[in-house]
Amino acid sequence: MADIIFVNQNDFAGISKALLKSKRYLNNSPFLVALPDLPTISETPVIRQMLDVYSSLKDKAHVVSFDKFKESESRFYGECLIKLEKNNLLKIAHFCPTNQHSKKPHHKNNHTRMSGRFIFTPEIFPVIRNLLAHKTEGVEINDRSALGEAQKLGQSVIGYKIKGKTYDTGYPKGFRLAYNAFYDEFENKSR
Q1: SUPFAM superfamilies given for it (predicted)?
Q2: What is the pTM of this model?
């Protein structure tokens, strides 16, 4: 059984600040984060897939979900230089800088992006505290910032290419596409 905790964030300081606000509930344990605006359709729930991967890594790594996005939309999601290994695991060479204004990927023909599910070990918290202590005014400390810094400090960060399809409800067209896909999925299962 899982405990689900919602943490309210009153300012737009990035996901890292939200993670830090949740620390007091976690008892120095690993934890899973699911961004609610990126729902997925999959035969095996993505959270179950992530937990299986985390367990196979002997609980020693942060795990990040990845999915393939359309070329026209991929700039909205966290890009990394990755290499596919076995069992859909991805070796992350580095976390790319954010540039939502560019329509081209940082790495040519790379449309596999971070897809909003994470398992973090408690070792992420000192990294986030340090980043927040040295941040520039108005700059968000996002998941890529924290994970990239954790990686530089020798913490293991592993990507996982999910088996499923991620939708983005953060904009009107994406919400409509997600709604239709989930409606079709429900109709197919109820027959």
Answers
A1: Nucleotide-diphospho-sugar transferases
A2: 0.86
Each residue's pLDDT tens digit, 33-82: 998 899 999 999 999 999 999 999 987 899 999 998 776 676 667 778 78
Q: How far is CA 55 from CA 48, 60, 61, 187, in A?
A: 11, 9, 10, 34
The contacts found for 42-51 with CB under 8 angstroms, 24 or more apart, are 42/162, 42/163, 42/164, 42/165, 43/163, 43/164, 44/163, 44/164, 46/117, 46/162, 46/164, 47/117, 49/160, 49/162, 49/163, 49/164, 50/117, 50/119, 50/160, 50/162, 51/119
The gap between the terminal CA atoms of the chain, to the nearest Å, is 30
- What is the CATH code of the structural domain delimited by 15-189? 3.90.550.10
Helices 15-22 and 143-152: angle between axes, nearest 10 degrees: 80
- Per-residue pLDDT reduced to its tens digit, 170-189: 889 889 999 999 999 888 87
| Domain spans, the chain | 15-189
Show the tokens assigned to 150: 């954790």
